[in-house]
What does this fold into?
Amino acid sequence: MKWFTYSLLLILTACSNLPPAIDNPPLVDISYPQAVQAIGSYQSAQVRWGGVIVDVENEQTSSIVQVLSYPLNHYGRPRLDKPSQGRFIIKTAEFIDPAVYTKNSEITVAGILKGDEARLIGKKELRLPVLASNVIYLWPVESNTECYGPGAWGGFGYSPYFGYSPYYWGGYYGGPYRRWR
It folds into this structure.
């Protein structure tokens, strides 16, 4: 019984590898639409926003990341199935490598709202909210082909989308028709 308890605790602690600032929203969670409506009244507020990287610029002393904003799920990951809310800018003193933080990568940032800044997007000038980042989290790419387990644990398989199911027998090559050699 002790072995099972320790194994369960190990598994549960391995699942929470997000930085606390990303995993937990601020006490007063200011959404992107709220901040854009009254940017001056929310200046210096803690926010947690996320979206998809549009552009990364590196200057001598800082890096600037332009992000297309999406609402976040309860873990802080951008919900790409929802409509985009607009753009915002992340400013950080850290070097952000454009080879790692590539265009269309999902990102979540926790930081302080510093106001807004004019940016030229195409031929149109827009005012974008600016965040001074405390924590930036680059989300790993999700794969639709991941399957865990040997495929038939007592007739049950694990799917990352459906959990344990007697109808899912373990992925692309798994199942009752698997040939053991």
Summary: The helical segments are 2-14, 20-23, 32-37. The chain has two domains: 17-138, 143-176.
